[in-house]
Amino acid sequence: DGGITQSPKYLFRKEGQNVTLSCEQNLNHDAMYWYRQDPGQGLRLIYYSQIVNDFQKGDIAEGYSVSREKKESFPLTVTSAQKNPTAFYLCASSNRLLNQPQHFGDGTRLSIL
Amino acid sequence: GESVGLHLPTLSVQEGDNSIINCAYSNSASDYFIWYKQESGKGPQFIIDIRSNMDKRQGQRVTVLLNKTVKHLSLQIAATQPGDSAVYFCAENLKTSYDKVIFGPGTSLSVIP
Asked: Is the pLDDT of residue A42 over 70?
């Protein structure tokens, strides 16, 4: 089955530590996205990538970094500079044709130890 | 500063009744709209979409209505079932240098058996 796989499902971060969230898709989508979801709020865009080896900051990129070395993969690193990292992180991908919905993974819940 | 918890709007319906979930979107230049369903601990799942040149679209048990005059979107679910209990998000797609998707905060639907 085609889809988006995020791992791990739960992740704990210690003070001063960087952690990396994995996102892999086999939908052959060019575009990939990372969102942050906080309780009672809409999804906020962290980073997006429209093509391999290229990515752009979203609305809340500070304290995060990404890479896009392969079409299938778009890992997100939450750095120690992100002072409030506790949230539910969602990865999505989409076809770059006109007006296509984004498809989401099942998320990673990040908490602080 | 003090943070204030946000509470999702909640809709409770009896099993078998019809549900109507409403959404106000923000940008008159948005040309594509999507409804997503999110179950607890999972990522958003695509339900139905509509383009700005339409005012109604029907799927299986779901109908989306678009009123561009007042920037309003609604999702109607016929014969609501317990499995429909979830948070429902509307999203608007604004064409910029990329597919900028703006998500609403969501409505929590609770189905009473």
From this structure: yes
Phi, psi of A65 (to 5 degrees): -145, 155
Q: Which of residues 39-98 of A touch B (CB under 8 A)?
A: 39-43, 45, 48, 50, 56, 90, 92, 94, 96
Does residue B37 sit at the A interface (CB-CB below 8 Å)? no
Confidence band of B106 (pLDDT split at 50, 70, 90) = very high
The minimum CA-CA distance between B7 and chain A, rounded to whole Å, is 5
pLDDT at B2: 36
DSSP secondary structure letter of residue A59: T
Q: Is the Cβ pair B105, A43 closer than 8 Å?
A: no
Higher pLDDT, B96 or B113: B113
Residue B59 pLDDT exceeds 80 = yes
